[in-house]
# Entry
Amino acid sequence: MSDIEEFKEKIFDGIKHIDENENEYWEARELMRLLGYKEWRLFANVIEKAQVACSQSGNSINYNFSIYSKIIIAGKTKKPIIDYKLSRYACYLIVQNANPKYNAVALGQTYFAIQTRKMELTEIEYNNLSEDEKRLYRRKQTRDGNKVLYKIASSKGVKNFDKFTNAGYRGLYNGESADDIAKRKKLRYREEILDNMGSEELGANVFRITQTEALLKKQKEKNEDMATDLHYTVGKTIRDAIEKLGGTMPEDLPTPDKSLKEIEEEQNIKAKQIQSW
# Structure
């Protein structure tokens, strides 16, 4: 996990609550302060926009935005105020509708969309992400997917993981190995190729990983060659499907100007600014 990912989890998980049923939630007023808002009336407007988006996506407002009142002490007096218990999805909608001038909003958008552990983004939500956010989201999917894939591959007898990995790439990239892809993209030595793909190219690799995982689970034999051949076949099948549909071949997709590592480093600078709060 990168420093920026650790910091995002620290600040946003730091205000997360768990109810008696083990459900996670965030309090709106705590999130408001963390995002940089100082007036409730302004943040309430953001909540209203998020509730509209929630309703339009077919989700329950009452479930995701649970309104309640609580007592606060102001000097010698007590007064009731309105607050919300927010689901992770509600927080995601709020940061998407919040003012981007606040550095913490950008971090929150990435955290609640990309780092979410209990939901997958709907197609509409994914399409509303920026290209960099889509890349971060897909990159996390490849990272998590590869962990599962390699574990299953190991159980099927795979020991040479370089050969196994390259088989998938060769199928998808018309015979190119990981090193070939890196050279074509003009990457530095040991620079991660998946960090230098756009969201469309990453999406093809997510599909390669998940489909290989699913088919390997069905493979009864513990045979390294069979597993490696399967990975190649899945990659080639996806390539053939892209060609049949008239899509752009993975090797013809543009390499982004910035790697995901560079983007995370930029976010890390913003995080350090917030860290001084």
User: Anything to note?
Assistant: The longest helix spans residues 131-155.
